[in-house]
What we know:
Elements: E1 13-19, E2 32-37, H1 43-50, E3 71-76, E4 80-84, H2 96-106, E5 110-118, H3 125-137, E6 141-146, H4 153-170, E7 179-180, H5 189-199
Parallel strand pairs: 2-4, 2-5, 5-6, 6-7
Antiparallel strand pairs: 1-3, 3-4
Amino acid sequence: AETLFRSGRGHVIDYVSSAVRMDHVPPPALPEVCFIGRSNVGKSSLIRALFSLSPEVEVRVSKTPGHTKKMNFFKVGKYFTLVDMPGYGYRAPQDFVEMVEAYLQERHNLKRTFLLVDGVVGLQKADHIAVEMLEEFGIPYVMVLTKIDRASRGLLLKNVLHIQEFVKEKTQGCFPQLFLVSSPEFLGVHLLRCFVAHVTGNLPAVEAS
């Protein structure tokens, strides 16, 4: 998985383009994963951490919540595309719903959606709405708990247990395992790279001998 996220000769990782409408997105030639979440959940920071082995890849991280206003596409060699979606909730773009709903419904090469939840504040009303949308469209998704370095152990445990209970009781299409990450400290980032490589069909299964 680390080899996949490390650019080199013959394996270029790069920002491809941005789009606000589906007729502007790159052709669906490769398997794709997308990252969605509330504004200021740490989405761009996590994507930058995933690409940290290739520091030349420019992922803009802003201190201003809601900075990502477009769908940003990053091509990982000839293997897959990663999409940074606009944040929902606070300062979301006006056409967020139309943009994201169209993407989720029409993007047939989308292999997995990563729904990011703030590890300090836990599941919010806006997150519930995002889950309802993914469930309604039948989109397979994964929950990722961000900023775990900022939460006390007690608070983190409370939020993890709440999400696990929510996933078990209220969801059909959610991957049962919750991923816990810290972008500044790279906690959980390697595991997430492995999972992305797996769902895009780029991590061969190793048979036990």
